[in-house]
Amino acid sequence: MLASFSGLFLLILILASFRLTHLLVYDDITAPLRRLFVTTTIVTLDHGQQAVQHEVAPKGLKRWLGMLFTCHWCMGVWSSLILTLLWLFVPYAIWLLVILAVAGAAAIIETIMLRL
């Protein structure tokens, strides 16, 4: 299986991991899942600007998961690991990776287009 690892697959894995990470950490559709581990509030700062404040559980597995769901760097490592293991051990998992990769590429293109 590793013999078939290529630059194209690496790109697919990168984009799929990016999309899965963003889905878990930021997207509204996964907010109910995040709420199991994180309390999020919007606070107004002294100069009127608003900021998002995350509060995670004080200890245990809920704390660890809360920290994970509030850190895109941390979630990115775990997303990459999970997707790589899926590719290695689950038949047809490549289709999930391709779908996430296409969605990730579309998100990047949309972000670029909005800034132009």
UniProtKB/TrEMBL annotation:
The answer to whether keyword Transmembrane helix applies is yes
Spans traversing the lipid bilayer: 6-26, 64-88, 94-114
Q: Which organism is this protein's natural source?
A: Paenibacillus aquistagni
UniProtKB keywords: Membrane, Transmembrane, Transmembrane helix
**Protein's UniProt name:** Sporulation protein YjcA
InterPro entries xrefs? Mycophage_PG1_Gp7
Q: Pfam families this protein is in?
A: DUF1360
- Reading the lineage from the top rank, the first entry is Bacteria
